[in-house]
Design a protein that fits this description.
The chain has 336 residues and is of the alpha/beta class. It is 35% helix and 20% strand. It has a seven-stranded mixed β-sheet, with helices on both faces. Strands 1-2-3-9 form a four-stranded antiparallel β-sheet, covered by helices on one side. The structure holds zinc ion. The site of zinc ion (ZN) has 8 residues, from loops.
Length: 336
Amino acid sequence: MQTDETSGNADEHVCDLCSHHSFETVGSLDRRGRPLETVICTNCGLVSHATLPSEEYLRTRFSGEANQLSAWNTPAGCRRIMRAWQNAIRIRGQISLLLPQGGRLLDVGTGYGCAPKVFQKAGFQAEGIDPCSSLMSFSRDLLKASVTDRWLSEMPAQRTYDVVLLIHVLQYLRSPSQTFQQISSLLHPGGMLYIECPNLQAPFARRTRLFHREHIHSFVPSTLIMLAQQSGFTLRRRFGDDQDNSLQMLFQYSTIKSTHVYSESYPAAMEALGKAGLLPYHLRWRYLFNRFRKLQRFTTERIASGRFVRQLIEECHSDDNCCSPLPGPSRTRPLV
Ligand SMILES: [Zn+2]
């Protein structure tokens, strides 16, 4: 089904963080060179598309066959699952000791359902939600994860969770502030929210490579923290540093809300955009190291991802029903 991608007049755009109307254009192309106007709020520094995609477009994009992740049984799909599983294990290692042990956890926009399965194996009552029914079929039937085919907005506002995960989801949404509010309505006071999303301050090749058509909003640390504070969240721990490609933050829900806009946020975001230059980036030792690791990872994934996913499915079935393991290659070593 074809839907209109944009919601209309860019002049009607209101900043999702501070409700101001004053924007400055910071980009005219997406990373593939296609037209895409990107703006920054001159009050708070939140970066977004000048014209937001319509809600109908996003619903079609993420719930149906247009979701590219839904084709999991392909070499590319297996690579994505392997990466998602390994990311979930890294995140569990980062935050699990800071969470209430055995608590009820919800992974919003769970995709393949790797995070709820990984946290379930660590003793959490872990669940996931995602609007894509075919992804939920993979997660439920093959990974034996506890997942549901639904949007965050469809969750009843009942404080039943101790932990919410939002892993590389926030940048795809029309209203990050509304997302924070919806999550706050699900958490017990004192509950924890872990977020990962792309870091606009990370060194990129050049400004024209910064802006992704699917990423409606882009964040620097201060804009992500201000959005969280507006809904009653306090930053408890930041992982990584300004050089990391992802912001990784653990917040705690305290019910104390703040609408304060940091005066340094807009200049900091502009400085981050100004640093996006080809030469400094490519001369960085960290860039070279990361490129090497990325190439190494692609090679490993290309060779091993199919076997990895088969073994993962076998292991998840064995955990779920020890008397009827799936036929397949013999297990070598546990994946967790
Ligand atoms: Zn703003």
